[in-house]
């Protein structure tokens, strides 16, 4: 039988549950409807979704009265309007010098006019509308900026061009040795070495072809690439003639056709390095055109295309080039000058390439560009601080600044007649003559000078209306800003703008100007103009500091091109011979030195000379006896000059210079010469014996000074120790001296008085605090701690038994080391009574803390001995030298290695090849092969050959860099050393500084 009372609770719960479920279902369905109908604008509902079911939204009671606001303007229909286009502000071109700041962008759709302003593309990495750029936005959407031929500002008239020499070349002396026919064994050995060198080149070319095609340089370790030379495929162009010479004709054909894909009118780089681009790109294209028998016409076409870009850098007032040409139209269309601090090699090493281009095209403008540089070098050669050579930096701007403000500030001195009574003669020997005698009615100032009365102004007469009838308003020119329709009166004056003579157009007078009286030409004060520059040729870059003269970096190829340009011009321009002979005489006298070596090797090196600005009568300058890898080309240059200009003594110097670089290769563990190192120069080239004492002094020049510093430091140390010891003894004596004992007063009341006045030792808060922090008791137990018991000064304190919990804790920390016992400095009873005073003075006592333990009393603090640092004994002279040799891995005879790396440079093997071709000595083939094996072993990488960090290491680290001259020069010279001698004969070809062979005119 069902009993309602028993189950009433369950029934009530069931009813509540049903009601709750019904309400929850209703609310969830309404939220679902709202979620379904909340669709983003412009997007349709997804009616096919199986998870969303559409249901009608239940009606909701709204307000019955509608809110209405009468706005007449809102009811009037208006057509949609677009804002008018913004008109650019037009400026008359003929009124001001033309300076364009826009960037012309060439697109396939249209090519803008020279003065058109391109649309704004926004900041790189951000769209033009200012919104955030998405990750999938293509950066190539911004069109590339292309170079456009600018209007020439300083053109050379056709009649003023320096013409390329014409006529039959002069017969020049034979340079190359007359080789005999080799034996079969010699040929086999030579060809086997050629195959090894060719295979190394093929591996490097394959790595470039697969990982860096049409890029500048390959990263041979990682397989990446670099673009340091404008991204125009420097390695590809630089390697063209090498591929042809090595017989890799298929690789050459593919690379020559790929040259057409290079666009010399655009680059990601803001500037174009004129020197590097000329020797690598222009020289590489011309040499490939020559060695291939002029069959690839596109190579010459691309050379002309590139030269048109480079010749724009010569558009300056003195036609001297900007060595770093900013090619973008927004900058290149302005007027420019060459720099007043130009690297010598960058401006003096353009002649060979531009001359050969002029010979191939028949256009004189290419030769004119470099011939003007030669003229300036020739004029400046005898005016330098080291006549005959040029400094590494020079001023090529052609502008000597004129300080005309100083001239204007000078006081005008008008000569007076000698009998003028107002003339005061400064005669120090006759002071009486300096004081003029006053005449009647004259007065003298305190200094003896005559007073000159001033003319008073005319009296001012005012009319009744307060205006002076004699005053007339001045005529002033109104200051009106120039606009599109005209210009102000200020613009009627001719402006003197540097490098521009554009006349200013007359403007239509404004109403304000027309209302005023127009001044005549005589009434206008013309603006006084002053010259900014005084024309000059090459000059010193700075009048202060020392100048550097060297055959090494920043100078090398300027001297190298003098005999080579003479050969290329067929000997028709004798100035190149004159300039070369002047320079080598100075080099032999001031730069070439013999290094002091333990085995007495008779070799030479070319150093660096620093010439100060002030004249020194004792010596010309300071020679730094260094040997740089870049200087190793000098042996080949001296050898060529010796044969070309009949200078037999120079050939001996060439041999010794080349041998100096061969020795530099053999002196290291890797068999490779470092980038730069210092040696010890001998005073005499003919007689130079090894002096170990001198060598050690060079390695340790401050041995005596270091010893003097140590002796002075020891004296100071001993003095400081004596002072510190005396001070410490005084402080210790003061601490150990006991405090004076109070005298016991006589009488019965004396003891009571003393007991009240004597200090009672109390525990310090620090000790109590430490003890309580280590306690494990409850806070309630701490409330029962008795008050501190102050001991009677007349009785010796006796420790009491501590509570149980304290004793237990004391046992737990018994293993903890106790603090050092201290001395109680308070007078004891016996000392007060005068009994056993000596026995109780140093007796340790303790004071009982309120918890029952003995607590150490505050004690005397012993003084701290002052810190006195003792100097470290220096190494002996012998130990210092040995340590430096070991730590720096110095070969004996080397004083310092300035730069330890090797970046695959070719200069040493270049001179070895020249000496072999000129002397015919097979020794140079042996030396060259040893150099090749050492270089290939230390630099071989997975995809080619890499620069290394330190040639003195047993296992140097690869730097993952392969310069384009590895294929263009280094491997080419190694290959030519073992190729047949008629391949690139020195009597038929001229090699530029990048080893690109150019055909000599016949």
Automatic annotation (TrEMBL):
Transmembrane segments: 7-24
Signal sequence interval, chain numbering: none
Cross-referenced InterPro entries: 6hp_glycosidase-like_sf, Glyco_hydro_47, Glycosyl_Hydrolase_47, Seven-hairpin_glycosidases
UniProt EC number: 3.2.1.-
GO cellular component: endoplasmic reticulum; membrane
Residues covered by region (Disordered): 71-92, 105-143, 172-192, 427-446, 483-518, 754-865
Basic and acidic residues bias: start-end ranges: 177-192
Active site: 276 (proton donor), 556, 675 (proton donor), 907
Molecular function terms, GO-annotated: calcium ion binding; mannosyl-oligosaccharide 1,2-alpha-mannosidase activity
Pathway: Protein modification; protein glycosylation
Record keyword Transmembrane helix present: yes
GO annotation, biological process: carbohydrate metabolic process; ERAD pathway
UniProt entry keywords in alphabetical sequence: Calcium, Disulfide bond, Glycosidase, Hydrolase, Membrane, Metal-binding, Transmembrane, Transmembrane helix
Cofactor: Ca(2+)
Keyword match Amino-acid biosynthesis: no
Domain of life (superkingdom): Eukaryota
Disulphide linkage map: 632-661
Residues that bind Ca(2+): 993
Family affiliation: Belongs to the glycosyl hydrolase 47 family.
Protein name: alpha-1,2-Mannosidase
Organism name: Lentithecium fluviatile CBS 122367
Lineage of source species: Eukaryota, Fungi, Dikarya, Ascomycota, Pezizomycotina
């Amino acid at each position: 039988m069902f009993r309602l009372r028993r189950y009433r609770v369950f029934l009530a719960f069931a009813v509540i549950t049903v009601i709750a479920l019904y309400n929850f279902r209703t609310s969830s369905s309404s939220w679902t409807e709202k979620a379904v109908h909340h669709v983003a604008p412009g997007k349709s509902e997804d009616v096919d979704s199986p998870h969303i079911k559409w249901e009608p939204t239940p009606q909701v009671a709204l307000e019955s009265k509608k809110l209405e606001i009468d706005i007449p303007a809102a009811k009037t229909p208006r057509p949609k309007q677009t804002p008018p286009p913004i008109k650019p502000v037009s400026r008359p071109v003929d009124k001001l010098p033309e300076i364009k700041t826009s960037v012309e962008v060439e697109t396939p759709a249209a090519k803008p006019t020279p003065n058109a302003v391109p649309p704004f593309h926004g900041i790189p990495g951000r769209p033009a509308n200012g919104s955030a750029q998405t990750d999938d936005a293509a950066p190539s959407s911004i069109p590339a900026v292309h170079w456009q031929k600018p209007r020439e500002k300083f053109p050379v008239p056709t009649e003023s061009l320096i013409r390329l020499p014409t006529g039959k070349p002069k017969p020049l002396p034979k340079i190359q040795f007359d080789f005999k026919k080799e034996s079969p064994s010699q040929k086999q050995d030579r060809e086997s070495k050629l195959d090894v060198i060719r295979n190394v080149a093929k591996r490097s070319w394959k790595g470039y072809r697969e990982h860096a095609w049409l890029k500048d340089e390959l990263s041979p370790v990682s397989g990446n690439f670099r673009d340091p030379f404008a991204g125009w495929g420097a390695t590809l162009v630089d390697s063209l003639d090498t591929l042809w010479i090595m017989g890799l004709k298929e690789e050459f054909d593919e690379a020559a056709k790929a040259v057409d894909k290079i666009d010399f009118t655009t680059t990601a780089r803001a500037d174009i390095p004129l020197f590097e681009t000329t020797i690598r790109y222009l020289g590489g294209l011309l040499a490939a055109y020559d060695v291939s028998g002029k069959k690839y016409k596109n190579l010459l076409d691309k050379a002309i295309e590139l030269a048109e870009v480079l010749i724009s850098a010569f558009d300056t007032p003195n036609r001297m080039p900007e060595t770093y040409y900013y090619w973008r139209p927004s900058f290149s269309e302005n007027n420019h000058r060459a720099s007043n601090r130009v690297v010598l090699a960058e401006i003096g090493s353009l002649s060979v390439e531009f001359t050969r281009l002029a010979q191939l095209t028949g256009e004189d403008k290419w030769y004119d560009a470099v011939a003007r540089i030669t003229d300036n070098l020739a004029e400046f050669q005898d005016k330098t601080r080291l006549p005959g050579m040029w400094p590494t930096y020079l001023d090529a701007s052609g502008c000597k600044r004129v300080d005309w403000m100083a001239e204007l500030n000078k006081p005008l001195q008008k000569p007076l007649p000698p009998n003028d009574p107002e003339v005061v003669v400064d005669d120090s020997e006759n002071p009486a003559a300096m004081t003029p005698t006053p005449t009647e009615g004259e007065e003298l100032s305190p200094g003896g000078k005559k007073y000159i009365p001033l003319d008073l102004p005319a009296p001012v007469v005012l009319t009744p209306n307060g205006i002076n009838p004699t005053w007339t308003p001045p005529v002033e020119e109104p200051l009106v800003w120039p606009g599109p329709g005209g210009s102000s009166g200020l613009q009627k004056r001719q402006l003197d703008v540097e490098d521009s003579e554009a006349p200013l157009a007359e403007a239509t007078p404004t109403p304000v100007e027309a209302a005023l009286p127009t001044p005549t030409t005589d009434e206008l004060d013309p603006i006084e103009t002053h010259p900014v520059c005084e024309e000059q040729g090459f000059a010193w870059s700075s009048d202060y500091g020392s100048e550097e003269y060297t055959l090494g970096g920043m100078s090398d190829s300027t001297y190298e091109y003098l005999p080579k340009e003479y050969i290329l011009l067929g000997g028709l321009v004798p100035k190149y011979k004159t300039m070369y002979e002047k320079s080598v005489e100075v080099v032999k006298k001031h730069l070439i030195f013999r290094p002091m070596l333990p085995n007495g090797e008779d070799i030479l090196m070319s150093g660096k000379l620093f010439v100060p600005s002030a004249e020194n009568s004792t010596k010309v300058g300071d020679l730094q006896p260094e040997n740089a890898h870049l200087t190793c080309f000098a042996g080949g240059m001296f050898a060529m000059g010796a044969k070309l200009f009949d200078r037999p003594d120079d050939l001996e110097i060439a041999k010794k210079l080349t041998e100096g670089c061969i020795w530099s290769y053999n002196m290291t563990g890797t068999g490779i010469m470092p980038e730069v190192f210092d040696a010890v120069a001998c005073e005499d080239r003919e007689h130079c014996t090894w002096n170990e004492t001198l060598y050690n002094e060079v390695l340790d020049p401050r041995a005596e000074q270091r010893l003097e510093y140590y002796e002075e430091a020891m004296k100071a140390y001993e003095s400081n120790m004596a002072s510190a010891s005396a001070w410490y003894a005084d402080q210790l004596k003061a601490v150990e001296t006991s405090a004076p004992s109070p005298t016991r007063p006589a009488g019965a009341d004396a003891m009571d008085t003393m007991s009240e006045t004597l200090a009672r030792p109390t525990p310090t808060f620090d000790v109590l605090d430490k003890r309580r922090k280590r306690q494990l008791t409850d806070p309630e137990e701490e409330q029962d701690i008795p008050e501190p018991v102050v001991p009677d000064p007349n009785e010796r304190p006796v420790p009491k038994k501590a509570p149980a919990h304290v004793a237990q804790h004391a046992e737990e920390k018994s293993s903890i080391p106790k603090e050092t016992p201290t001395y109680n400095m308070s007078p004891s009873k016996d000392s007060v009574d005068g009994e056993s005073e000596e026995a109780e003075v140093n007796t340790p006592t303790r004071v009982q803390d309120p918890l029952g333990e003995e607590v150490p009393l505050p004690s005397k603090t012993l003084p701290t001995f002052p810190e006195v640092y003792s100097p470290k004994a220096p190494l002996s002279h012998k130990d210092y030298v040995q340590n430096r040799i070991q730590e720096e891995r110095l070969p004996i005879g080397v004083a310092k290695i300035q730069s330890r790396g090797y970046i695959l440079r070719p200069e040493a093997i270049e001179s070895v090849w020249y000496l072999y071709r000129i002397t015919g000595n097979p020794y140079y083939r042996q030396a060259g092969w040893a150099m090749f094996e050492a270089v290939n072993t230390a630099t071989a990488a997975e995809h080619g050959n890499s620069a290394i960090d330190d040639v003195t290491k047993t296992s140097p680290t690869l730097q993952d860099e392969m310069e384009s001259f590895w294929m263009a020069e280094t491997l080419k010279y190694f290959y030519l050393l073992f190729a047949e001698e008629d391949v690139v004969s020195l009597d038929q070809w001229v090699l530029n500084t990048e080893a690109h062979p150019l055909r000599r005119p016949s």
